């Protein structure tokens, strides 16, 4: 079926018992009650950030097919149906991250509760030198001594897949018998060999193991490729990609922060260095995997739902597909931006209609100037059935410290749903609870090199949204946002807002 006008900044992971994780799989239904399942069935498919009408998107496995010039976004489909097995591979196809075709389930999990693949986990897709496509994926079963093993399916058309029942790669004694998953397979042309990076543990440490092969059939363990440089959490859903003259290693931090990081090198062998700002987004975007057509680089992940669809509760596992475009700087570092094709689609501009202007704000010639501390302006809601892009420009003074956006706000300006920009700390934060709770739910570093001109882009569709500022993205989920007033606030005087526009399809 077609995901009807699915427009996407599209922009990943299977479950842990105690948290929503990446490809370390546990029973997803354990965190889903019957009312949540029913609510999901009645929700519309979101257009900018797509999901099927009655299910949710987990770990994306993106693959660009040069022959058809098409991105194939495989993903772990979170059915939330209470079945003993879970997470089949399903598929969205797109040429531009704007229009999507939903191909449904393409690799099922086994109905046999004793099978290694009673649950499926993340992996990767690659085309061999003979034109055959190979899908490497995680088979997970909590009832087995070796809970995770790597498995394989093949296809001639990227749509119809045949599992290779006789092929399986299990962890040897060097690696964890519980954590062995998320195979990332790529062809290293200078070495004329295939590499496979595997999320695992060795001697109590989180590592990526490397296997090599000449034929995608027989694999040799060549030892540890990369050891975590940031703590004890597993490095989930890794990717290794060359873009220009640089090589990028990405992974998702399973704990404690649950964000997507990257490392950089000029060789696939490393060494890989850690950029000063090494996270693309906050914990409202997970399991990001890279994909490129050779000229553009994208990061595909997912924006989680919330338990019981309550803004005051924690994130669930799985949600909406989301994609950031990654922009390469001269020094090889990467910044985040919305896909250009999405901006071209959301191109119908209008001026936002004010609902309330605080006493400390002057408005003239399309500019809002905050002349008193703790002031705010609110605007009428956009059509909640429409994808929206909001753009504008902030001009701050040295005395300006914190300002941001509020959603579902009352006239007194109070709202627990808010973005906060801190120019002195160089951070963007998201809060999902009341003002009494001073701790942000999510945070990302940002670079504000010129406070006289700080552009922003905010994208939203239904309850999923992303704010782009300072070379970073911060994704969030706000179920109370659609159909409510939204606004801009500042704790300090001296902030000016210019060129504020709302774009729809």
Structure description:
- This protein has 505 residues and is mainly beta.
- The chain has 2 domains: 28-342, Tachylectin-2, Chain A (5 Propeller); 347-504, Exo-inulinase, domain 1 (Jelly Rolls).
- 3% of the residues lie in helices and 48% in strands.
- It is built from 2 helices and 34 strands.
- The chain has helices at residues 34-41, 340-345, and strands spanning 56-65, 70-78, 89-94, 100-107, 119-127, 133-140, 148-155, 162-169, 180-188, 193-202, 205-213, 220-227, 235-243, 246-253, 260-265, 286-292, 297-306, 315-328, 334-337, 348-350, 354-357, 361-364, 367-370, 375-379, 388-395, 402-407, 417-422, 427-431, 442-445, 454-461, 464-469, 472-477, 486-490, 496-504.
- The strands form 7 sheets. Strands 20, 22, 23, 25, 30, 31, 32 and 34 form an 8-stranded antiparallel sheet that branches. A 7-stranded antiparallel sheet has the order 21-24-33-26-27-28-29, with no helix packed on it.
- 48% of the residues are buried.
- The model is unreliable at 1-46 (pLDDT under 50).
Features:
single chain; 505 residues; mainly beta; Tachylectin-2, Chain A; Jelly Rolls; 2 domains; eight-stranded antiparallel beta sheet; seven-stranded antiparallel beta sheet; 2 helices; 34 strands; elongated; disordered N terminus
